[in-house]
Write a structure and sequence with these properties.
- By secondary structure, the chain is an alpha/beta fold.
- It has one domain: Rossmann fold, CATH 3.40.50.360.
- The protein has six helices and eight strands.
- Strands 1, 2, 3, 4, 7 and 8 form a six-stranded mixed β-sheet that branches. The chain has a two-stranded antiparallel sheet with strand order 5-6.
- Helix 1 packs across helix 6.
- The termini are close together.
């Protein structure tokens, strides 16, 4: 079993990173292995628009440091996505990643898409935002969950939207980190 986390925050000690770390700690407490991919630290590009994945569904034609992790999504048992909200939207790193997820969808002859990710995987989301209103950025959050979690056929087991992060950092919020830990435990079946 392996839980794979994609962290879209450029801040290794920031709010999103603290929440993701607690989720992964919870998963490890149940005896599973975890891998965290810090998108800011790897060399990758967004979708090239080459449509190679339409000819070979489930495989991205772009080859870079993200490539092995896109393949690992197919074999992991669960996936965590962590993302701060910057300028009302996902971080740039996360948007590039989400665009590459397109390769994991196949076109259906009658229209629409089918996930190329095997079923039965768990999914959790960790969002951190400076705004105090938890619903202010729901469109971005729903987009992220829909494209990378439920859209790929994963079972969404938990979501944290950490608000007012500048005034109330995640690192000092034991209740929040315990909630993240519990979500990580639920990811292991």
């Amino acid at each position: 079993m392996q839980i794979l986390a994609f962290n879209g925050s450029p801040r290794s000690q920031g709010n999103t990173s603290a929440i993701v770390a607690s989720m992964l700690e919870g998963a490890r407490s149940r005896g599973t292995q975890t891998t965290e991919v810090r998108l800011h630290d790897i060399n990758f590009k967004g979708c090239l628009g080459c449509l190679g994945c339409r000819k070979n569904p489930g495989f991205c034609s772009a080859k870079d440091e993200l490539s092995p992790y896109l393949e690992a999504i197919k074999t992991c048992t669960g996936m965590v996505l962590g993302c701060p909200i910057y300028m009302y939207r996902l971080s740039g790193q996360m948007k590039l990643f989400v665009d590459r997820i397109y390769s994991l969808y196949a076109n259906l002859p009658q229209g629409g898409y089918k996930s190329m990710v095997p079923p039965g995987k768990t999914y959790a989301l960790a969002i951190s935002q400076g705004a105090p209103d938890p619903v202010q950025y729901q469109k971005s959050i729903m987009y992220l969950t829909g494209m990378t979690g439920s859209g790929l056929g994963m079972d969404v087991v938990g979501k944290i939207v950490h608000t007012d992060s500048a005034e109330k950092p995640a690192t000092g919020n034991q209740e929040l980190l315990e909630q993240a830990f519990d979500i990580g435990r639920k990811m292991v079946r």
